[in-house]
TrEMBL record:
<keyword id="KW-0808">Transferase</keyword>
<dbReference type="Pfam" id="PF12804">
    <property type="entry name" value="NTP_transf_3"/>
</dbReference>
<dbReference type="InterPro" id="IPR029044">
    <property type="entry name" value="Nucleotide-diphossugar_trans"/>
</dbReference>
<dbReference type="InterPro" id="IPR025877">
    <property type="entry name" value="MobA-like_NTP_Trfase"/>
</dbReference>
<keyword id="KW-0548">Nucleotidyltransferase</keyword>
<dbReference type="GO" id="GO:0016779">
    <property type="term" value="F:nucleotidyltransferase activity"/>
</dbReference>
<protein>
    <submittedName>
        <fullName>Molybdenum cofactor cytidylyltransferase</fullName>
    </submittedName>
</protein>
<feature type="domain" description="MobA-like NTP transferase">
    <location>
        <begin position="21"/>
        <end position="172"/>
    </location>
</feature>
<keyword id="KW-0460">Magnesium</keyword>
Length: 197
């Protein structure tokens, strides 16, 4: 007879102990200039701290940060995330796959966060998790992270050779699992002018 965890996995809503959170934080920041944008100060702390803190506060069995620099790795570790090192400048798909390769046994769903989206709120994540995997955020028709992917998709994602980040899988998500969030919560930082004045 299946136990309660198995029942919830079948329903697409794993218990927190069957969830992983992955923060993608290994981008090259080319459009930001010579400074690492993830270390640029947003208020009183480095930009990446917002996503790391959000991940650390999300109920999960496993919390990972995919990083390319010692400084960003230190920030993630101080927030309580395990770090996976990756060479800087690779495609987002490399970061995603690096995290998926490190998933612990028994994970049923994976929450993907981007370290350059500092305004995603706790309530946004709670609403996304309530939808159950698969789910993602949306602005109008555009689908984007944060995204909640079912673990059953992982083998296929790992097999794809082309540069396909999390966005390439969002088109599979049913419309009623695409959560409309405030546009200002989903802003990302690409260039210095994207930082608040």
């Amino acid at each position: 007879m299946p136990n309660s965890t198995e029942n919830r996995l079948e329903e697409g809503r794993p218990e927190p102990r069957a969830r992983a959170v992955i923060v993608l934080a290994a981008g090259a920041s080319r459009r930001f200039g010579p400074e690492d944008k993830l270390l640029a100060h947003l208020g009183d702390s480095p930009l990446a701290n917002a996503a790391f803190t959000l991940a650390a506060g999300t109920e999960a069995a496993q919390r990972l940060a995919i990083v390319a620099s010692d400084e960003v790795a230190d920030l993630a570790a101080r927030a309580g995330l395990a770090t996976v090192r990756l060479a800087a400048g690779g495609p987002q798909s490399a970061s995603l796959k690096a995290g998926l390769h490190r998933l612990a046994p028994g994970i049923g769903e994976v929450l993907i966060l981007l370290a350059d989206m500092p305004w995603v709120a706790r309530g946004d994540i709670d609403a996304l998790l309530a939808r159950g995997a698969p789910a993602c955020a949306r602005i109008g028709p555009a689908r984007l992270p944060p995204a909640l992917l079912p673990a059953r998709w992982v083998p296929e994602i790992l097999r794809v050779e082309a540069d396909q980040g999390a966005r390439s899988w969002l088109s599979r998500i049913p419309t009623d699992h695409c959560l409309a969030l405030p546009e200002n919560h989903l802003r990302d930082i690409d260039r210095p002018e994207d930082m608040p004045r």
